[in-house]
Design goal:
mainly beta, globular
């Protein structure tokens, strides 16, 4: 078992509770150790709760890859109801019914499905919610291609919220529509590359 780059295939992470970060799983980079690079394939991450960031998964200074996964009904008392991470790659996944709930610090209640810098292809985000910004997705740099982001809810930007300016944002061949609080919003000027 490679603790730096563990692989989870055909697994279920269901109904777990953490009194801190990462209700379902947590990955941390400690001093002088390599960056963790966990990979999930055909997994279900469902119904987990974190009393801080990352209801389903929390990853600090790590690169997460999810392929053909379902992230359903997770919640965090902070940002990243489904997943909170530094950066991750998502392919052919479904994110539904995840929640970033009000935390002790209201500024940490963003990204109902995911919070962090993400590259996403061929995925669905629906029915996720955040107390503050980004009902589906919140972060500072994105690639979103061939995705549907619809019917998510937040106070602002129920769809996608960009929390810093200056980073490139690529949104291509995707549907971002019908999100409560707005579809795409940014805290500052962004470089947006968009195709129909």
């Amino acid at each position: 078992f490679d603790v730096t780059s563990p692989e989870f295939v055909n697994c279920s992470i269901v109904g777990n509770y953490a009194t801190a970060r990462g209700g379902g799983a947590s990955f941390l980079r400690t001093d002088n150790n390599p960056q963790p690079e966990p990979r999930f394939e055909n997994c279900t991450i469902e119904g987990n709760f974190g009393q801080d960031f990352g209801g389903g998964i929390y990853a600090q200074n790590a690169l997460i890859t999810l392929e053909d996964c379902r992230v359903l009904g997770n919640s965090a008392q902070g940002s990243g109801g489904g997943i909170f991470g530094s950066s991750y790659i998502v392919r052919r996944c479904v994110f539904r019914g995840n929640q970033a709930l009000l935390s002790a610090n209201p500024q940490d209640s963003d990204g109902g499905a995911v919070s962090g810098d993400v590259s996403i292809w061929d995925s669905l985000f629906s029915g996720n919610s955040a107390h503050r910004f980004g009902g589906a997705i919140a972060g500072s740099a994105f690639i979103i291609e061939r995705c549907t982001v619809a019917e998510n809810v937040a106070s602002l930007a129920g769809g996608v919220f960009v929390n810093t300016g200056g980073n490139p944002i690529s949104l291509r061949h995707s549907i971002v529509n019908g999100n409560v609080g707005g579809d795409v919003m940014a805290a500052a000027a962004i470089k947006l590359s968009a195709d129909p």
